[in-house]
Amino acid sequence: MPAADRLRCVVLGALCLTLFVLLGCERQPAPTDGGGTTRPAAATGSAANEAAGGGKPVLIGHFASMTGSEATFGQSTDAGIRLAVKEANAAGGIMGRKIELKTYDDQGKPQEAGTAVTRLITSDKVVAVLGEVASSLSLAGGRVCQQYGVPMITPSSTNPAVTRTGDMVFRVCYTDPFQGEVCARFAREQLKAQTAATLYDQQQAYSKGLNDYFKKSFTELGGTITTEQAYSGGDQDYSAQLTTLRATQPDVLFLPGYYTDVANIALQVRKLGITVPLLGGDGWDSDKLAKIGGTAIEGAYYANHYAPDEQRPEVQEFIKRFQGEFKGEVPDGMAATGYDAALILFDALRRTPSLEGKALAKAIGETKDFHGVTGTISIDPDRNAKKPCLIVQVKNGQTTFVASYMPK
Ligand code: PHE
């Protein structure tokens, strides 16, 4: 072989090797060493990341209720996302670039959610947005993402309208028609309820929607709804609704609200001598539920995305790593869905030919059989995920697995 050709071969070989090494960075994030670091504060970027990674970090935004009456929603989701970011960076980042997360607190208010997302997109210039938990806030933030053409993945907003916002808005969780059906089936088949009364938050898209879907399925399954009562989030006195409801003598009480209100309602339910089982949706998921509700919430059932005592290896592995990172804290459902949403975004970032919104959205939409903590996730053409829905029970103040339902 002439010298010039030999040289060409060597150069080509070196190029291939470089490409191979670069692509090698695309592997799945490795577990962390589990060193007992504390939960980082919100809205931090890491200068060390920049120094370590080739090129500028890839900036990702998160809008979340870090404060307010649903504060554990934002805090848990953020913790799950931060664990995912840390693991991905430890494994080399994305195409040699570190991932940087910026979190803004929306205080659980739709207007703040809109402002936070606008800021993430227009001044921070994030490539994608993660959030929110509460559907009404995802609706507000999603509109902004759609307007600017920046992809958004909600980890846990279940109201169907959220992803109908447009082609930039995705979710990695199940939706409320299915969650409502699961609650209705559980009430009819396991609790043997003939009748149910409901009490929902008329200000939350999630609560109103889930109330309707439960009613529809429960009735289709041959049950009767005795009464539907409403409240506004943050109300302190539920005695009027509960007295009306008590007179209808339901077999089960369905409460499709968020944990702070539900815990207060449960206390007043038991005080009024109503002893029937309580049932709800994923909005109950917080360690605050049992802390506020105490014995009044003990034994109650709710639908959820995850249970810490599920024996799937993905779940137990995740809990170990989360506890290593956050001082032994047991992750709740939002930590798990936040973690999954982040991993799905990273996976899409590795596959997308460019960081431009449309290309990245296409890559997210092509997610198939991703093995997440909360189940195997494929994004369907409506940008939703088909996933199992669990029923869990509050036992000794802990969330415990009862049953898992598969979507049709
Ligand atoms: N699914 C709820 C909503 O859409 C939010 C939620 C998810 C709450 C998971 C708790 C746990 O509003």
Characterization of this structure:
Helix content is 45%, strand content 17%. With 408 residues, it is of the alpha/beta class. Strands 7-6-8-9-10-13-14 form a 7-stranded mixed sheet, with helices on both faces. Strands 2-1-3-4-5 form a 5-stranded parallel sheet, sandwiched between helices. Helix 3 crosses helix 13 and helix 10 runs parallel beside helix 11 (287-293). The termini are far apart. Phenylalanine (PHE) binds at residues 73, 133-135, 156-159, 206, 282-283, 285, 333-334.
Strand share of the residues?
15-25%
Strand arrangement within the widest β-sheet reads 7-6-8-9-10-13-14
Shape: globular
Q: What molecules are bound to this protein?
A: phenylalanine
Tell me the helix content.
40-55%
Quantity of strands, as a count: 14
Q: List the helices and strands in order.
A: HHEHEHEHEHEHEHEHEHEHEHHHEEEE
CATH level 4 superfamily of the largest domain: Response regulator
Query: Which CATH first-tier class of the largest domain would you pick?
Result: Alpha Beta
Largest sheet: 7 strands, mixed
Number of domains: 2
Number of helices: 14
- Examine the coordinates and then state which fold CATH places here, giving the name of the CATH topology of the largest domain: Rossmann fold
* Category from helices, strands and their pairing: alpha/beta
Ends: how far apart?
63 Å
Describe the protein's topology.
Elements (H helix, E strand, L loop, with lengths): L2 H22 L22 H6 L5 E7 L6 H20 L8 E7 L4 H15 L3 E3 L4 H14 L3 E3 L6 H4 L4 E3 L4 H15 L4 E7 L3 H16 L3 E8 L7 H9 L4 E4 L3 H13 L6 E3 L6 H7 L7 E4 L8 H13 L7 H19 L5 H9 L4 E3 L2 E3 L11 E7 L2 E8 L3
Parallel strand pairs: 1-2, 1-3, 3-4, 4-5, 6-7, 6-8, 8-9, 9-10
Antiparallel strand pairs: 10-13, 11-12, 13-14
Helix pairs in contact: 3-13, 4-5, 7-8, 10-11, 13-14
Bound molecules: phenylalanine.
Phenylalanine (PHE) binds next to α13.
